[in-house]
Design goal:
The complex is a heterodimer of chains A (319) and B (242).
Chain A (H helix, E strand, L loop, with lengths): L1 E10 L2 E11 L4 E5 L6 H8 L7 E6 L2 E2 L4 H7 E4 L11 H11 L7 H11 L15 H13 L5 E5 L7 H14 L4 E6 L2 H7 L2 E6 L2 E6 L1 H9 L3 E7 L2 H10 L3 E9 L2 E8 L6 H11 L2 E8 L3 H19 L3
Parallel strand pairs in A: 3-8, 3-9, 6-7, 7-8
Antiparallel strand pairs in A: 1-2, 1-4, 4-5, 9-10, 11-13, 11-14, 12-13
Helix pairs in contact in A: 3-4, 4-5
Chain B lengths: L1 H14 L3 H21 L12 H5 L1 H13 L1 H9 L1 H6 L5 H21 L2 H10 L4 H27 L4 H24 L5 H10 L1 H9 L5 H24 L4
Classes of the chains: A alpha/beta (319), B mainly alpha (242).
Chain lengths: 319, 242
Amino acid sequence: MIQVKNLSKWYGPVKAVDDVSFRIREGEIVGFLGPNGAGKTTTLRILTCFMPASSGSASVAGHDVFTESMQVREKIGYLPESVPLYPEMRVREYLNFRAKIRGIGSADRPAAIERVTRRCRVTEFIDRPIGQLSRGMKQRVGLSETLIHDPKALILDEPTVGLDPAQIRETRNLIRELAKSHTVILSSHILPEVEATCERIIVIAAGQIVAKGSPSELKERITSSSRLIAEIRGPADAIKAAVGGLNGVGKVDGSLVDGWNHLIIEAQSGQDVREDIYNMASKNGWALREIRREVASLEDFFVQITAQQNIEREGQSPT
Amino acid sequence: MRNILAMTQRELASFFYSPIAYVVLFAFTLMVGLLFVFLTENFTPGGEASLRDTFTWLPLLLCVTVPVLTMRLMSEEYRSGTIETLMTAPISDAEVVVSKFLGAFLVYAAMLGFTLFYVILLAIYGNPDYGLLCGSYFGLLLIGAMFVAIGLFFSSITRNQIIAALLGAFFLLLITILASILVQSTEVSGMLRTVLLMVSVWDRFHHFNRGLVDLNNLVFFVGGTAFFLFLAVKVVESRRWR
């Protein structure tokens, strides 16, 4: 459905998108995750034919974005991050105007407007000027505009930025629902949102793709280095030595927290040494009051991998 | 074609939501009215029933009013970000520019239409030469078209409406009035003189004001309009590459 091959984009001396390649199948809902300045918006703008790439190619629904620009534009709905609308127009007028531009005939327009306004819950304020609407309402108007011509693909740039938690949840549900009948790409730097909505995530940082996969796949990449937290009372050095000597234990760090040794134990992949720790503690007569496993979160993964990328890029930048 | 129609309708409606259009229309009509009453001897018993003297000054007035009318055409789209939704819709950059031009030109034509009031006055109290008047109005429409195209071009090169208006006004004053003034000086000679003579809009308008519809002038204004529209399209297209 969407194919991107070796896409690069230079803004003067800055390489905003660096040799990016990915594929999105029809009906998928994919999240484009990355810190600010990673190149998400630039990539989306290239896909929506707003700007051409410096090199590489991209195609949407079988049409190349550079040579068959008009056909691509007919088949996608795009909501930019700033949700640009005309404040002087009323919602209905605006949707009518966009419908005309997208080639919806006068006979079909009222039905199309009715459909999208109902779906995006815009009907309550359909006759109000857009300038009077709140951010959340404007976002819904923008979203309804992207759906008006029933496109094959929806491209949403940071669709929930600036919304309150209730609105974020609403938008998320709406997007999930839309994903059943459209291919959706959304970009975000808000992890939980991407995790909750998308089947597949593409992580991009400093213009390059650093990871691709489903949310669970990505999490698996980091649970291999999980940590154990244990609190044991007893002689600090002896405890550390004993724990360190256990099979499958890597580094052990400890500090004294009101009489108890608060230990951070790095366990090697796959090994659950909690039982061994308990046994060792009770054998030596040391009281054990807490033992738990810390599963690294997607957030750790994100921070780690994007920080790495940023350092690499800074190393490359011309001075 | 239907895209152009849809966009032109939107532009027209949008013009009348902002106070600028009303202010410009009001100011223009007021000034023409003042010119009509004080500067001419046409509306006195025994005077010639013509608007020629009134209209003589119009190109000068238009140099300032048209850029104010056109300043927000592209600049506003850049500022508000709506250019992004326009450029990712199945509408070509040329269609966008042409629609903006048509919207502004129609507003201009409406503005000119208010002056028909004076024609009616002349008709009631006298016997005006309608042929002459047609020539004058035709000339004003052509000039208006070219001025709107120029204003649109300057709007397309900047996000800042004020700059667009100022650049437009300066440029129009240059080709309209400054050209005629400079040509009168003997210092100006050779290539510069030739160019200024050819360009001077005011001198060309005098022909129309006398009822002379000259092919030379027609080609100048139509060509000028087309040229600046072409430039505007190229500027808009070039924005994608930045």
